Amino acid sequence: MGIRWRGCILGGKRGEYLESTGGSSLFDNYEFKRNLGMYLTSGLSNLDLEESILEVEKRITDALNYDQRLWKEKELSNVKLRVRASKVNKTYRLGDVFQIYLRESELYAYGIVLKKTDSIDLFGYLQSFTKNELSVLELENIIEKKKFCMIADSGSSGIKSREWKRVFHYEDIVLSEEEINKIEYIDVENGGVLRPNQWTYRKIIGDPSSGSWDGEVISETEAKAIQNPYGTSGQGWIEGYLEYLVLGKSVSEYKKRG
Questions:
Q1: What is the reported pLDDT for 95?
Q2: DSSP class of residue 118?
Q3: What is the pLDDT of residue 224?
Q4: Are the C-beta atoms of 115 and 122 separated by less than 8 Å?
């Protein structure tokens, strides 16, 4: 009897798992890759250390020697990993998850790319601010529940500077196009030089970059309940919004700060 994996059998008859998944490759299965990664790196907090690399090599070697009949007349003595300095990856795609360190509050925040087109880079920022880094599994659980504190069309300077750390790629679609089209955004404007303390709040639905004048004028109380900023926000603005949300304040209050 093999190991049961959500109704499928691994280690049973050859090809049994492939038949149960309609013939798709085992290695195309996201859950399998996630659990394999967790096995190989369990208990290792820093793969940059030589002893961590040696431990991963040992685990891979042990796994490949699980059934030594596969090697026929040969045997696997050990596996060696090659590592190199990572390249600066300035691109990102739908489902990429990033870790953001908030310097003022000294907390970790996280964002996931919900939509990416030529005109919009929509990020969802998780309803989670923690002293310690969250595991991939913990992040997946939050994303699956769609627990966001803020959604915004975001600039990519934090990614290009590598201050926002890429964590992993989430493969499922988080929000449908229908859900995205119902998102409410808030725009805040004052009366300019003549009326600097006179504020107008507008609610825009669906497109954070559409004309704000088409938005509905709402009260300050209503504005404070909407935590999704109108327009495209750069790294500094995004981190500023998140710092305010940590304090229990609102996006509109951050826009009005002196």
A1: 96
A2: S
A3: 97
A4: yes
Coil vs helix vs strand at 147: coil
Tokens of 211: 């004309």
What residue spans of 130-229 are helical by DSSP H? Answer: 136-144, 157-160, 177-180, 220-224
Structure tokens that stand for 176 in this block: 């449908």
CB-based contact 227:150 (threshold 8 Å)? yes
Largest alpha-carbon pair distance within the chain?
87
What CA–CA distance (Å, rounded) separates 38 from 46? 14
Q: Which value, in Å, is the radius of gyration of the alpha carbons in the chain?
A: 24
Q: What are the start-end ranges of the E strands in 65-221? A: 96-102, 107-116, 121-126, 148-154, 165-169, 184-191, 195-205, 216-218
Contact between residue 137 and residue 38 where contact means Cβ atoms under 8 Å apart:
yes
User: 242 vs 127, 164, 236, CA distance in Å?
Assistant: 10, 14, 10
**Are 203 and 222 contacting, i.e. CB atoms less than 8 angstroms apart?**
yes
Q: Which residue has the tokens 């504005």?
A: 223
The per-residue pLDDT for range 192-235, each reduced to its tens digit, is 767 778 899 999 999 998 877 778 999 999 999 999 999 999 99
Ramachandran sector of residue 135 (left: φ over 0; alpha: ψ -120 to 50; beta: rest): beta
pTM surpassing 0.90?
Answer: no
- 89 Cβ neighbours under 8 A, 6+ residues apart: 166
Enumerate the domain spans of the chain: 3-71, 96-255
